[in-house]
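Need tokens for this chain, all 135 residues.
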Amino acid sequence: MAPFYYHNLLRGLEQSLVDPFVAPEFTHELLRRISDFFYHFHRRIFEACEGRIDVAEVTDDLGSQTGPLISMDTYKEFYAPHHQRLINLCHEFGIKVSSTMTTAVAACSCRCSWKWALTSSTPYSGRAQAWTWRN
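Here are the structure tokens for all 135 residues:
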């Protein structure tokens, strides 16, 4: 359940970071297909387990050691809808969701209990931003 990760695997990290800007329609279609696969795969698992699953993890590696790999706008447009779709699938089966995204980008858009704040007032420049967590 990690569309960003599988986008990276299929296209390579550098190309997957460029795709949303140079080929947005292609990127949407690729991510839809990745998400469709995992959606139907997990739906079949959830149906076969007949209520025996308590928790599922929706995760993705969206950051580096120093900050996010993509901007909040890119995340919201391309990846958040697919994360939310998988979270909704879990909830449909009464399964709690553990979301261990590696940056605050995901926590904000996936409606986790954490809130985020950029400590820098400059627009995203492709360089690491300073992030802080607050309850």
